[in-house]
Amino acid sequence: MKPNSKLSWNVKYSAGTLSAKGFDGAGKVIAETKVETTGDAARILLIPDRTVINADGQDVAVFTVAALDTQGRVVSLAQNKVNFVIEGAGKIIGVGNGDPSCHGPDTFFSTTPVRSIAVDDWRWKLANIPRNSSAVPEYAIDFDDSGWSLLKNGDDPMTIEVPNTTAIYRAHVTLAAEDVSGEGAQIRFAGCDDEGWFFVNNQFVGEWHDWASKPSFDLKRLLRPGDNVIAVGVLNSYGRGGLNPDVVVDVIGKPTPVRWSRSLFNGLAQIIVQSTREAGEIRLTAGADGLSPATATVQTQPCAPHPSAQ
To answer: What is the pTM of this model?
Structure first.
């Protein structure tokens, strides 16, 4: 072979082994490789590039995943979708396969469902209330407000006509058990003119003194399955005022689990795993339909964190 060139041959295909050998001028074999016809993919092989990484929250190990036939040969035509599950002191941060035509994601993210519930049919009446977080009987859960005036979303919220006058607004919202077992909940008001004191199930949640802003409060610790009562005491300081009945409760559910996967290309793919700051073991399992799964482990060792991560 001439320097900086290559040699090639056209070989008629037949099942079996194709080998290539390189010789020096004396006829000694100095290079050799071969490829073999494989059977169908039967199992997964999972190999990390390192067996020990630092537990600093930054170090990574790269796992190679391959589809093998029953004789342990990489099946270069395999395109199986492989799913990954990780346990222990690490997390997956990326997957890849080198296939330029593959549109599968390289990263996966958890999503948190949010259900927005409109709080309708507010009732209100003029009443003398303390201008602080003190509760009054009208804020209570079981108080009978059926005789109060009805205020619906879309109505004029300026129901208090006289300056320096106070009023109470009440509404009910019904929640299921799963609504209060998620990650949290908040309530959003379209406006309160001029000042307001906000209660949920007779518990004070906050106050507001800016008529031009939109109050919002965290409700997670106060909500319960079934009926929930929202009560607001409002002070109208100037002109006309009141509570805007456009109110929404956002129920934040539990994050959906991240399901990592990647299709094979030429029978191969790779997974990048990052350590946490806890020393221990990372256990990665790869599985695909019709193939025997594989599990590989990497140890994370205590270390001094990088200055940028301290």
So the answer is: 0.66
